[in-house]
Write a structure and sequence with these properties.
By secondary structure, this protein is α/β, with parallel strands linked by helices. 39% of the residues lie in helices and 11% in strands. It is built from 17 helices and 12 strands. The strands form 2 sheets. Strands 2-1-3-4-5-6 form a 6-stranded parallel sheet.
Length: 434
Amino acid sequence: MGSDPSSVPDSDSGSPDRSGPESSGPASTGPESAGQTRASSARPRLRVLIPKGLAALAGQSGIGEAIRHQRRAVESLGHEVVTSPFADFDVVHLNTPFPDTPLLAAWAHLRRRPVMMWAHSTEEDFRDSFTGANRIAPWFRRWIAWIYRRGDAVITPTPYAQGLISRPRYGIRRPIHVLSNGVDTTFFRRREGDAAALRERLGLPADARVVMSVGLQMVRKGILEWIEVARALPEVTFVWYGRTDPRLITEEVSSAVASAPSNCLFPGFVAPEQLREAYGGADAFCFLTKEETEGIVLLEALSCEAPVLLSDIPIYSDWLPDGEVVHKVAVPPAKAVGSKTPGAAHVRGQAAERIAGRLRSLLDGELTDLSAAGRRAAEAVDMHEVAASLQGIYEAERVTEGTKSTGISARRRASTAPSLRSPHGQDAGRAAER
């Protein structure tokens, strides 16, 4: 999104920060043209607080990757990133559902600074993840909704996610902006020799067929069907990158991974260059997820022009059309496959047969080559595009250097006036708690 910090879920992509001294990718994706440079020098230079705090626990998670993308976007705009809440700052970015997030929001408001709250999670994508997740999912939604309401503006990665958190049960009254987490298309690019290097690294023959996926080992990510597809295609090597703290894995997933066929490989976390090599060298990227708010690993695969077989779920319906940008396949809902009952096993088997047939067609070249279209889709959310959109949000929300009582901070005071009530005479936030 490598070792696994036992205190937090692991990253979707298995990619650590590429900005450090040992990075194999670029340190930043700043403006490249003279026009962009002049534009960044002409605008007020903001001090943007992106605090470490408990967010450091998410360093190897999808949220951690999104935070790193934000830092790079902010810096590419010519703004300064600060990490201490005790430093001077003009605006704060908050990203995690950890307990220090509402405290940091309160601190920013005490200093009359606006809070930009990133909504990476929903109740829907929390379900069918870790042991006990479904039981506490409604409480998790109440918690994140309360946190999101601490923001002066809320930012979420896709229109689909925006639609979910706009529902009354979230009770968000602030503006909700859509801003992709983005992808570094300069780094995530197919290179000559990737296929040979990947097979050599995995100890496979040069002509071996390889199908990959990346993510947490959970029912929601489709790992149960993925393993069954591998069982149905023994002549193909299936590689799943990324791993999860064993204490969080459900019994069904743990059992499936332990009994996976010999053509299934689980390398765990890998260096970013190794992951990029896998995207560029695999014969297909098979992403059977059942729910996402975006899917950074999918963007990375598309950027590397990997042939993609993607689950046909609502978030990707309009964004990535079947047969135009990716090839899709129907996947069963998590509740139909995520148990050890004979009925669930039967559903998994039926789904695996259908997915294997579609995947075989992709591997055999019977389906249209959409790699160029995938690359264009990734370029549409390249880090340069994300940075420009972020600046647009700053301007729309009137975030300026030295912001105190102007802009969204002033609107927050107005929006919390007693006259703003829900249609039923209750505060929208309180109504959402029910």
